[in-house]
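Now for today's protein:

——
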Amino acid sequence: MSVVWVDADACPKSIREIILRAAERTKTHTRLVANHALPVPRSPFVATITVPSGADAADALIHERIEAGELLITSDIPLADLVLAKGAVVLTPRGESLDAENIRGRLNMRDFMETLRASGEHSGGPKPLGEREVRAFANAFDRALARMLRSRG
């Protein structure tokens, strides 16, 4: 069974909606993991998994359960690194594909930005998603989902 995993705590609603529509359209099992309840339509293909509050509880569950070839949607770079090592496919909510070629650079940049924030030099996170980013995600997600479904037969 092919599964799409969503690190749903920080996943924008517009991106979740695209994922949920695709789950129904393609009859793909999809798991949204968060530390709070998420409203999702009743579906045999969509399930939410609520984890206890706490640092990295959702990440730990995803890392434990994801299998090679499955797709993860996350903006969490350390989690992406862990599941890439298991052979999973990773896409950010901005439609960026993370892989063995670019994950080290992303981890280094994340650590650098964390150091800047800790020193007070830089604050804030990424810009909010606009229509362009949502379209980029939808296109990248459709391609990644099609590849996953083809590879699993």
